[in-house]
UniProtKB/TrEMBL annotation:
Keyword Signal included in the entry's annotation: yes
Signal peptide coordinates: 1-27
GO BP of this protein: proteolysis
Molecular function terms, GO-annotated: serine-type endopeptidase activity
Record's keyword annotation contains 4Fe-4S: no
SUPFAM superfamilies referenced in this protein's UniProt entry, alphabetically: Trypsin-like serine proteases
Keywords, alphabetical: Signal
Recorded superkingdom: Bacteria
The name this protein goes by in its record: Serine protease
InterPro entries per the UniProt record, alphabetical: Glutamyl_endopeptidase (IPR050966), Peptidase_S1_PA (IPR009003), Peptidase_S1_PA_chymotrypsin (IPR043504), TRYPSIN_HIS (IPR018114)
Entries under Pfam families matching the protein: Trypsin_2
Coiled-coil zones: none
PROSITE patterns, alphabetized: TRYPSIN_HIS (PS00134)
Amino acid sequence: MKFQAYIKPHVVSIVTLISMLPTAVVAAPGFVSKVNDTVITNSNNTYWTPQRLQNAKPLNLPKPTNQLTTQTAPLAGTPVSVSGQAPTVNIPPDLQNKLFQPRQINSVADELVQPNNVGSVGAHFTSSRLVPLSADVVYPYRAVGKLFFTIPGQGDFVCSGAVIKPRIVLTAGHCVHSGSGGQKGFFTNFLFLPAYRDGAAPYKSWSWSYVMTPDAWAKGNGVVPNAADYAMIEINDLPFKGVNRKIGQVTGSLGFKTFSLFPNHATLLGYPGNLDNGNKMHQVTAQSFRTQTPNSVEYGSDMRGGSSGGPWIQNFGVASVGQSGGQNPGLNQIIGITSYGSVSTDPLYQGSSVPDSRFVNMLNTICNRKPGNC
């Protein structure tokens, strides 16, 4: 980004040219990235037909393939934190913006095994629909959404994600990249629907322009736990009443705090296919249960496929009058991202990589890629 600073008068034109290149350049050491060379704007996004959206399947949570090794000491470093930001423009939700009719694919029996608040590993949690359901269009919930994408040769899938900057959506590395193959390992056709509910996109659907993930995931052969199973997607702007808006202006954004996943307590949000068929935002509240090698922490949860990439948020919500912060007062800060979990319904836990300096470096890199990203 020093190059951009040196020729500041021409930053916009050069960034525009870069965004049109057919292939991407690794943005910084330690990361793999890709420019979208097929769908440049939301206006010409023709891939996602109602049928494709309807048939997209929840991406299975990666099953732990590493030998689980509980770490005896907390994962620690010097935390970096940024607060969440409420929406800066007043855009009323349009729940009549129905993109497709969701399919009902799960049996009642499959749903009945889920409400447990502790599994066989002993990780306690509380799991619930949003109460009321309409909370999903209110900040801070509305900064969370459903991510649609295509895995070449396999089909269309869904994960979860969250807005963390004016043009940046955070999700899991395994929701954007296979874990091997370099740039060829990237998936495509990313489409983000904030506050998605029952086939509706109340704040429209947003296409992508750029994606990046750390080497730890992109070169890790899909093995979890993984030291950095997360990714960031740059999102194209959309017009609202004739004015182009960034996604963060419309939905607000969540903050983040590194090295804060253990010990802590969090609200886990996402769209798990095993609960309400992934058609409604779901929430789990839990505290840190145990640490795992490498650089991972597990919390109790009954969410499964489709919840990948969902945010784990400390101090979630809106402060009451008279409420004062304690020793960790940061509101609506992401401390983890859903990475992996058990395939069976008995253990009831999920794991997340600990956001660390790689997270901060990646965010700085994608922020500097285009003026106004952050």
